[in-house]
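User: My instructor asked us to take a sequence, write out its structure as tokens, and then describe one feature of it. I'm not sure where to start. Here is the sequence I was given:
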Amino acid sequence: MLRIGVDLGGTKIEALALDDAGREVFRKRVPTPPDDYQAAIDAIASLVAEVGDGTVGIGMPGALSQVTGAVKNSNSTCLNGKPFKQDIERALGREVRLENDANCFALSEAVDGAGKGAQVVFGVILGTGVGGGIVVDRKIIRGANAIGGEWGHNSLPLPNENDLPLPTCYCGRKGCIEAYLSGPSLSRDHEKATGKRLPTEQVVLHEETMGRYVERLARALGSVINVLDPDVIVLGGGMSNVDRLYTEVPRLWGRYVFSDRVVTRLARPVHGGSSGVRGAAWLWND
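Assistant: Let's start with the prediction itself. The structure tokens for your sequence are:
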């Protein structure tokens, strides 16, 4: 039986199928219809139909409310308040397992990626948004409120004068980690400091702006280590391609960790941009 994974992202929808040995036998991606809920469901149904029979797991931004069953906390705001699980199962004609996209990323890297063999893995998404997922012994920790790992909507620890005024996050709060560490937030920070608006891929070449980013990331991950104490933190999303993060952040985060030594590893994802969709397929790993 094939395991089919779907990654519903802000700009693309990707489908993948794994055989019983975890080998990839199908992959395809299409653009995400902008702000069109029904069109996104139709696109997913079309991709799954191309694969055929198999279990289906879907990674998506946000989570399902345990009160209403509808989507909450998604930065793809057209999903919020919608009965996505019921609608996609009706469209596919089969049971679907849904999970937060960062949880899928963390699961993929814990099963056969950078966190393989580790007991506690924290997966980080640094992309158009900032998310996180916790996997312990290859099991996702969703939490009592289905928000396990959602570090991006904690406040940035220990804000200093460079962090002020506190930026407004899409969630309506001020000073969220996401409002500092997402790719678009990095571009806004550079514009605030220099008056020049540049795309993220150019901003990462600017020393002063990236110095602020690295130090903020060290503060934010230091607080994660204090609470979760993971064996490994794996970075995903577009910012995970910035080489200096893997050397400079671990040099700095010891300032913020309540320990005389930090052995937590900061790692690149083995499966890169494919980790989310692989993790969605692995939702049927029990």
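For the description part of your assignment, you could build on this observation: The longest strand covers residues 24-31. Try explaining in your own words what that tells you about the chain.
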